[in-house]
Amino acid sequence: MLNKNRSYPICVPRSITNKAVTTYLLALVVTNLVFMNYALDAVWWIFGIVEVLTFFIMTNYLSRHWSVDTFQPKRFAKNIFWSAFLIRVSYVLITYWFNILQTGDAFGYENADPMFYDQIGHDGAQWLSDGNWNLLDCFRQYYGLGSGRRHAVAFSDTGFPIFVSIVYWLSGNGDFSIFALRLMNCLLGAWTVLLMYRLSQRHFGESTARVVAVLCVLMPNLIYYCGTGLKEVLMVFLTVFFIERADHLMQERSFTIMPTLGLIAIAFYLFMIRNVLAITLILALLTALILSSQRVVKWGKRVALIGLSFCFLSIMIFQNTEIMREAQSIVEEGGSGQKENMEWRSTRKNADRIGNTFAKYAGAAVFAPMIFTIPFPTMVETPEQEVQKMIHGGNFCKNVMSFFTIMALFILLFRGEWRAHVLPLAILCGYLIVLVFSRFAQSERFHQPVLCFELMFAAYAISRIRERKIYMTWYSIWLGVMFLAAILWNWFKLAGREMV
Fold first, then answer.
1. Less packed terminus of the chain by CB within 10 Å, N or C?
2. CA–CA separation, 138 and 118 (whole Å)
3. Is residue 415 exposed (0-12), middle (13-18) or buried (19+ Cβ within 10 Å)?
């Protein structure tokens, strides 16, 4: 069985981080030499190099200097919270002015969704100032079909506008409100790190939990969304909050009402943000309650929680026609919606986007083997893909860390330890399975809800890396594959657009 009380500290060794940094730099240079006519602009080189060097060098440094031999758990928790918060605030300040300089406004690139949320947030804040507190009804009527507005707000997209409206109202509903929302993102991002630390403590012990926290503090793709007006930070926070509270509830000795009601409230709010994610979370909880060993959750509590979860899910689906329609479309469409979307991506040609003719060959069979790893980094100049270029270093970090996530799944399976970790495994694998058959399998944005759990299992594998020499050999091979994948991916992006 897993020994949670190891006597030695665990860190991310230099043998891992140095090889990763070297591989990235080689891939970046070689790719830009091979496709010299479409070499990446210098500004994206800076973003990528800072992302990769900061992530790998600092994970080695902080995991060693914040080990169990250095700080007590309470002091460590304070360190990771404030470090995560200050790093995110610094990034928000930098990108806030960077967006203004590059695009002329604070919303940056691909700003359609952020500008919509900003517009609806100002309106919602004004309604609150006028004493109209029923924002849900206001959004569904004022922004509904036939109202002449640009968007129709469905139930599953009202959660974030309500959140934005409250933040804007509290911050004066002026120019500062945009910045206030991003500061709130930083706070939620730091809180997410703290929740992952607590969850990992229960599953893998103090030493591994500290590595998990450090990885979440520094992961570029988690930091990036703090500087946007998108809902990803809130969605990731609520997902992690739900799993952490559900895990705590399962492991408590007795069944308690208030924590259970709190869990239901989190799930309900997630239905107002993304239906599929909320349904997947409830199903992950049901899976964990059914498959977890009796040492994790007793039978009496198991039956009570299964009943409550099933009733709540049934009520949400059958009493809300929008949720029912979306759930039915997922089941009925299967991969057909994905196929149609890939066909459209391969043929579109307009002012905003140029289609990739190879996209029509992509599908669940292609995405499934790579779902833990994709998307690969965009290291060449492709039209209208500034966001992908800005976070290409973060995508490379995810590509590398996915090796350890996959390694952890095999270790837990072959050692028979998986039943002690069913809940985080269920949400990780369950959500990615849904994503494989969706229209957004290759979209980095849609991988966000489970990125923290990928890092948690990656940290567990890193804690085992010294047990067998063959693990480091496999890691070196993986880096070689990622080097080739980066070059091939950028050829794919250029050739599909007939640029090479």
1. N
2. 16
3. exposed
- DSSP conformational letter for 335: T
When pLDDT is cut at 50, 70 and 90, the band that residue 340 belongs to is: low
pTM: 0.92
pLDDT value for 2: 43
Alpha-carbon gap, residue 276 to 439, rounded angstroms: 13
The phi and psi torsions of 413 (rounded to 5 degrees) equal -70, -50
Confidence of residue 147 (pLDDT cuts 50, 70, 90): very low
146: left (phi over 0), alpha (psi -120 to 50) or beta: left
| Angstrom distance (rounded) from CA 381 to CA 411 | 39
- pLDDT score of 184: 97
Q: Is 369 exposed, middle or buried (0-12, 13-18, 19+ CB in 10 A)?
A: exposed
Helices marked H in 35-72: 42-65
Mean pLDDT value of segment 382-408: 95
Tokens representing residue 232 in the block: 């990803």
CA separation for the pair 402, 371 (Å, rounded): 9
Beta-carbon contacts of residue 310 (< 8 Å; ≥ 6 apart): 286
